[in-house]
Amino acid sequence: MDVTTLIQKLHQLVDDYNQRTVSLAEYRLKRRRLLLTIDSKVNGLTASGGATDDLVTQRKHH
């Protein structure tokens, strides 16, 4: 899959999320995978680069 197709898939994912057809957790997971794949194609990095599919919620500490 080329970068243009991946970006189109990312745009479609955003549209799906805005139309509430995917959950926030599913959106974040798919977005992360797409961005890692795009990054690996553009920069030649491996998609696994230390990233996991674990969903982690980070809270800001004031």
Descriptive account of the structure:
- This protein is mainly α.
- It is 58% helix and 0% strand.
- It contains two helices and no strands.
- The longest helix has 20 residues, at 24-43.
- The radius of gyration is 13 Å and the shape is flat.
- The termini are far apart.
- The mean pLDDT is 84.
What structural keywords apply?
58% helix, mainly alpha, 62 residues, 2 helices
Question: What's the structural blueprint in terms of helices and strands?
Answer:
Elements (H helix, E strand, L loop, with lengths): L2 H16 L5 H20 L19
Helix pairs in contact: 1-2
Q: How is the biggest beta sheet arranged?
A: none
**Helical amount among residues, as a percent range?**
55-70%
Low-confidence stretches: none
Distance between the termini: 42 Å
> Structural class, judged by helices and strands?
mainly alpha
Order of helices and strands: HH
Query: Per the principal axes of the C-alpha atoms, what is the gross shape?
Result: flat
Number of contiguous helices: 2
* DSSP E strands, number: 0
If you average the pLDDT, what whole number results? 84
- Beta content: under 5%
CA radius of gyration: 13 Å
